[in-house]
Write a structure and sequence with these properties.
The complex is a heterodimer of chains A (454) and B (203).
Chain A (H helix, E strand, L loop, with lengths): L1 H14 L9 H11 L19 H31 L6 H34 L6 H11 L7 H13 L15 H12 L1 H4 L27 H18 L5 H6 L11 H14 L4 H27 L4 H21 L2 H23 L10 H6 L3 H8 L10 H21 L7 H30 L3
Helix pairs in contact in A: 1-2, 3-4, 3-5, 3-11, 4-5, 4-6, 5-7, 6-7, 7-18, 11-16, 12-14, 12-16, 12-17, 13-14, 14-17, 17-18
Chain B lengths: L1 H12 L10 H6 L4 H30 L20 H23 L1 H7 L10 H12 L4 H28 L12 H15 L8
Classes of the chains: A mainly alpha (454), B mainly alpha (203).
Membrane topology (chain A): Multi-pass membrane protein
Subcellular location (chain A): Cell membrane
Catalytic activity (chain A): a ubiquinone + n Na(+)(in) + NADH + H(+) = a ubiquinol + n Na(+)(out) + NAD(+)
Chain lengths: 454, 203
């Protein structure tokens, strides 16, 4: 390490004020701080607390937590390739090779585009290079299908970095998650390539003499299938080998590169939670909210389909939930109040659904399947926890997380236009996170003022 | 149930701001503080939920072709639709006067912070838009009332959310040329992307 540090120290004068490359100081600084913690302290007087874990180290932790999904994603792309082309007897190495051939260019394009823009902005606007993109640049490829054209990756990354982040002043100041902005941009601009309806399987590239590239592969993701044909064809497919609970949990199904595997996301969650980088409150509440909403939908379906419940019972149910809500507002304090408040809101929604008598086939999907289908786990662990765009207060985090989970299932069930809901649910809650915070802080102030005796 | 789904539609799916981009002037101008934004949002809710049913009655019994038959059968051919805009605006302006007086009386500080934008609600396109959409879509009276209330609530939700975002944005380092309205326009676009999650929901 010493010799590396020497190299940097030697170059440093060139970049400092008066040096010949003064303009590019922040580019130098970015590389230096990536490797070493800087010596500078912020003030000359007083006690200094120095922590080696600065923002760069924190972002690296997230990248380490992302590695399992990346490695698994590379393998899975290869695996799906061989499954779809009917070559069962491929070795592990073959699968990794094909996967890497498909995935690594996307990663490289995303990093090169994003970091290029980031460095340009840093040089022109004279602010330090922001580390946030190290994570976003890894997240963007992981939520893309393996078949995405590379120019679209570059375009989406550029849009997300410039409009989603740099116009706000860089990392830590954006309002929407950068990676999700990239995906939402592609989703609405080029729906043909990323609509979420069809299975994305990498078929290879005829240029290097791999198997035939088939353009139209008419498979559907489990979510799209459930949305389109209702539960009957869904459960047929379900019970066949491909989409068992176990397969979806492990992630051995077609889908975007990184988001198929719930298991890998949970390993990532373990790393994030033990290092204290990700908030366990958000991760837990997203899963909990989605499970509960799924469960409530099962319940609504049962009641509405069989029609056993009388109007009196429904009214009692509605009144009960409203009373629960009021009791909660009056007597319960702290984080529990936030949790029960949101849950009571979900119950009131359920009561309204009972009155409406609506019953969609999708409601029958067992609640635990909602947790492993689509990108819910990936979104919950890596994107909902984004400390910049999430709620900052503890109570706010519970509300934010539960609402994400519930909205995800809600969009899946009710919105035929979008088979997957986690992306839009997180974006929507990103928009409302500041509002949640403001009201939580306001309530805190009010409570403390009421305790004041002056 | 029809009314509940109409309410959900008008709040989230056909949101005045994010689906139709109506009423942008006050949306952009009065969203610097949450408390002010909430005040304007509530004023819009009030004005919309009064003007939609009133304008419905006006349309039904005065303006529409053959509407005047309740006075005398000889008016069956009278069509006053060409007066629609001016009549609707007159009703809206009257309502806004009322709201203005009420706010000035009960919350002078809010009155001060809303400033010129309170009288300007009268020409807020989301409010006239609410009345015109209601006519165009052939709503009944209860539907029109729910629609007016829901659209107002959607507007209030949007403006309060934007105000919260802008309060947070005070700590951001926005490039100079984009400060103020520029960045707010960009945020509105990004928020509209997020709100797209609702578009297409069948209720």
């Amino acid at each position: 390490m010493k010799f590396l540090q020497d190299i940097f120290e030697k170059q440093k004068p060139h970049f400092e004020k008066g040096g010949k490359w003064e303009k590019f100081y922040y580019i130098f600084e970015a590389h230096f701080t990536l490797l070493f913690a800087p010596k500078d302290v912020t003030s000359k007087k007083g006690v200094q607390i120095r922590d080696a874990v600065d923002m760069k180290r924190m972002m690296m932790t997230v990248i380490i937590a992302l590695l399992p999904t990346l490695i698994f994603g590379i393998w899975n792309v290869g695996h799906q390739h061989f499954l779809a082309t009917g070559q069962e007897a491929a070795t592990l190495l073959d699968k990794f090779a094909i996967g890497a051939y498909a995935v690594l260019p996307i990663v490289i394009v995303s990093y090169v585009t994003g970091l290029g823009i980031e460095f340009t902005f840093a040089t022109i606007r004279r602010h330090p290079v922001n580390e946030g993109f190290l994570v976003s640049g890894m997240l963007i490829p992981l939520i893309m299908p393996a078949t995405i054209p590379l120019w679209q990756v570059a375009l989406a990354t550029a849009f997300a970095v410039i409009i989603g982040k740099e116009v706000f002043g860089g990392t830590g100041m954006n309002i929407l998650n950068v990676a999700l902005t990239a995906r939402a941009f592609l989703y609405f601009a080029y729906p043909g390539d990323i609509s979420g309806d069809n299975v994305w399987t990498y078929f290879g590239d005829s240029l290097i003499g791999m198997s035939e590239p088939v353009q139209a592969f008419s498979g559907a993701t489990p979510l799209a299938m459930a949305a389109a044909d209702g539960i009957s064809s869904f459960s047929n497919f379900w019970l066949s080998d491909a989409y068992t609970f176990q397969n979806m949990f492990l992630g051995v199904i077609p889908g975007s590169i990184g988001e198929t595997s719930t298991l890998m996301a949970l390993i990532g969650a373990l790393i994030l939670i033990t290092t204290g980088v990700g908030s366990w409150r958000i991760i837990l509440s997203v899963f909990g909210g989605a499970f509960l909403m799924g469960y409530l939908f099962n319940f609504i379906y049962d009641i509405n389909y069989t029609g056993q419940l009388g109007t009196g019972v429904k009214i009692a149910f509605l009144l009960g939930t409203i009373i629960l809500f009021i009791i909660n507002q009056k007597f319960i304090k702290g984080e529990l109040k936030a949790v029960i408040g949101v849950l009571a809101g979900m119950l009131i929604f359920t009561a309204v659904m009972l009155f409406s008598g609506a019953a969609s086939e999708f409601m029958k999907v067992p609640a635990q399947f909602h947790l492993v289908m689509g990108g819910l786990a990936f979104g919950a662990v890596y994107m909902a926890t984004d400390p910049v765009t999430a709620s900052h207060t503890f109570q706010g985090k519970w509300i934010y997380g539960i609402m994400i989970g519930a909205l995800t299932v809600l969009i899946r069930v009710f919105n035929p236009a979008y088979p997957e809901g986690i992306m839009l649910a997180i974006l929507l809650m990103n928009v409302f996170a500041p509002l949640i915070d403001i009201y939580v802080v306001k309530a805190n102030k009010k409570r403390r003022l009421s305790r004041a005796t002056v | 149930m029809d009314l509940v789904s109409l309410a959900v539609r008008s709040i989230f799916i056909d949101n005045m701001i994010f689906a139709y981009f109506l009423g942008m002037c006050s949306f952009l101008a009065v969203s610097k503080k949450v408390s002010t934004a909430l005040g304007l949002g509530l004023a819009v809710v009030f004005v919309l939920s009064i003007t939609a049913p009133v304008n419905w009655l006006l349309q039904q019994y005065v303006l529409r072709e053959g509407a005047l038959t309740w006075i005398s059968a000889e008016f069956a051919n009278v069509n006053l639709e060409f007066l629609q805009f001016i009549m609707f605006i007159a009703v809206i302006a009257g309502m806004v006067q009322l709201v203005e007086m009420v706010i000035e009386k009960f919350s002078p500080s809010l009155y001060g912070s809303l400033g010129i934008f309170l009288p300007l609600i009268a020409v807020n396109c989301s409010i006239l838009g609410g009345s015109l959409f209601m006519v165009q879509r052939d709503y009944t009276l209860p539907q029109a009332s729910v629609y007016g209330f829901g659209s107002g609530l959607g507007f209030a939700l949007a403006i309060v959310a934007l105000a919260a975002v802008r309060e947070k944005l005070k700590y951001s380092n926005v490039p100079k040329p984009l400060k103020g309205i520029g960045i707010t326009m960009l945020i509105t676009g990004l928020m509209a992307i997020a709100f797209k999650s609702f578009i297409g929901i069948a209720v």
